[in-house]
Amino acid sequence: MFRKSLFVAQLCLTLLVCLFLIVPMLLSVLAGLTENYFVGLSSGLTFRWVIQVWQDYGDTIFRSIWIALACLAVNLLLGVPAAYALRRSNNRWARAFEELLVLPIAVPGLATALALIAAYGGWSELRTSWLFILIGHVLFTLPFMVRSVLAVLGSIDLETLEEGAASLGARFVQRFFHVVLPNCREGTLTGALMVLTLSMGEFNMTWLLHTPFTKTLPVGLADAYASLRLEIGSAYTLLFFLMIVPLLLAMQFLARPRGKSRNAATGKPGSQSIIKEPVTP
Amino acid sequence: MIGMLVPAAAFFAAFFILPMFRLFLVGGSGASGWGAYMAIVTNHSYFTSLLATFGVALITTLASLLIGSIVGVFLQRHRFPGRGALVALITLPMAFPGVVVGFMVIMLGGRQGLISQLSMALGGGRVVFAYSLVGLFLGYLYFSLPRTILTVMAATEKLDPKLEEAARSLGAGPWHIVRDVILPGLKPALISAGAICFATAIGAFGTAFTLATRINVLPMVIYTEFTLSANIAMAAALSFVLGALTWAVLALARSAAGNTVVAAA
Lengths: 281, 265
Prior knowledge:
heterodimer; A: about 280 residues; mainly alpha; MetI-like fold; B: about 260 residues; about 75% helix; globular
């Protein structure tokens, strides 16, 4: 009897939490498609608000996509080689660098942005360029890329593979492109999805780094929430959801434990958590 | 081979280490000099907002650990149709930016929010809680719960059910099992999730920014000092202190949980 009521209590709490997390998303999607949210659904459904957001804020959406892709490119160029170097060099300096690299996640975005402004704010070509935002985004996303590549590299016997290739006469460049990179494909893909999602949603830094000509999607969202009617803010949020939810679902799909995956073989549970580092809201 | 680290290291040095060093110097260059770094404890209003920030962060952490572990264990231990989809759906919020989290709270507790509409329909008058510390707390909870639930689920998967069976066969009641078997098993995961909760809550800016500028948490104070008062030195000093505090919380938890926070994640 007691265990039964304990079960019911747990079930109720779980349902309540699910409602708390899901209902606002649904409400916001609904509000973005409703003619007049205050009147309710009886006022009719419409794409009017979505179209208006597209016209007024379309540029922020494209800028965010562009910055996210650029951020991904820089991450691939800097992050993947760095992860490889960290994996192969097991000395104190490599460990220290790995620790340092996570700092931009641990330190609030506001502080990082102020630091960038303090150091480079006087250089007006950079300050007013989208590159200034890109720098912030790369700082913030690099640890995710490095760690997700490292996680894959850590689970394979890279030394043996490389020795094998070297004994067959493969030079370093050949080994890197034909042995190392194909082996960390999965980690790179997870890292890439994470980089895109985080860059597209980054607000804390971007709010200080942006100029009126370099507004990104979350900056536009903050504008819309503060000054426009609820339906427009909701329609804007709906567009944002349409952009990041597919990325998140793809990430969850990749993180799913699979029967014959490497993780299962090594006895490590395929971790369910997609973003394991703190991301400051 | 170590050469492959050079591009990333150079980028990091130029755009993080150097700027942070500059920030530190700027922090000491204001009217109050290096005393700016003490202002967070000596200045009454800063100290009050420090306490408010820590208070909200602490309550958020405790609430999401309590709720998250009950829900996480429940979701891991029970199989039902649509479970995978449900878990996927409730983990979406942890990738939302703070502004969107704030807006979700407005959808619930704002002037046109669900609760306000329900309470009006029931004739109870308008109930609005989004634009206050309560709203901020719910926003942080909205963001932290998914992560805590996921962390607890992953840790529960590794718990050995035989231990619980053994305890039960020895006559332990449900509370006894929770206290002496389940909680000790989840402890590292809870410390790690709690630290991340706390650290994100003290540094969060977007949520507070969306909900109200009147909420006096530290990130909002820094932002106000920087923009409205143009007191850049004080903003620099405060954000340097905030960054150091956040880092310290994570580092402390990491040593307590045996390297599962941030670095080993």
